[in-house]
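We store sequence with structure; for instance:
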Amino acid sequence: MKKPRITIVGSVNMDLVFSTPRMPAVGETIQGQEFHQIPGGKGANQAVAAVRQGADVTLIGRVGEDNFGDRLLECLVDDGVDISALSRQAGMATGVAGILVDGDGHNSIVVTPGANQTLSPAHIDAAATAIKSAQSLVCQLETPLSAVTRAIEIAHQSDVPVIFNPAPMQALSAELLAMVDYLIVNETEASQLSGVPVSDRDSAGIAAVRLLERGVGTVLLTMGAHGVFIAEQGARRFIPAVAVEAVDTTAAGDTFTGAFAVGLAHGLSVVDAGIEAQYAAALAVTKFGAQTSIPHRHEVEQFMTSRGVTVTRHAV
């Protein structure tokens, strides 16, 4: 099957990961267990996830002219990501994320954007061809909203489907949401964006409808261990979570987004793409780290087969 072309606008970070038995209280010092430097950033994670699920991926973003930038670019190339639209910012550090992972696999993250914050609409315009020629555009919000907005405008004007994962959340205009074909949000993001506190399936449905009313084409509301609520105009569907023993939830959402984009591009329905993405994300939480945890397509297929689950791809 021909590889789909996906373009991603997003961040590239080095994750500084501390493994700890529990989260420290304010003012408390505790002894950690392990420390790792692992390639991350939501944009890079989603790009790696999409490549490993069988897509040709161009990543638009920025890194600094430092050792972290060197290493991250090498890792992306090794994974097969097209970095021709990734530029470097002199005099500024590459983005970093400090991540604490506790004994239950839950994490707390502090991100310093560094060069990611210099991505501008001009950089997007310079890479417009990569957006116009893609089968979908994927964006998040670890780069400036002005750049993300410009990328979504170009995709929308070119009839390229837009997959938007607005994390970390910030205020978004109705005009921007109206250009989004697939909105992927977790419970917190859905609550903030819709104004409806999400705590269960019923409230998830209400929040999703609010977001549809704001112009979004399809809403995928991820609820971690509780599953995914999918809402389109006139249709609702809930996908149960895949039961696994969690080691680290870092990059699970990014894995879901990247795998979902590839599933759609391979001709899967929204629901089937969501199911496949759920299995990819479930595998990711069984391993430690961001990109180190993202599974390859054959691993996802074997996992789904082991659980008696199949989806049907169609030539596109």
In short: The chain has eleven helices and 13 strands. The two ends are 9 Å apart (CA to CA). Residues 270-284 form the longest helix (15 residues).
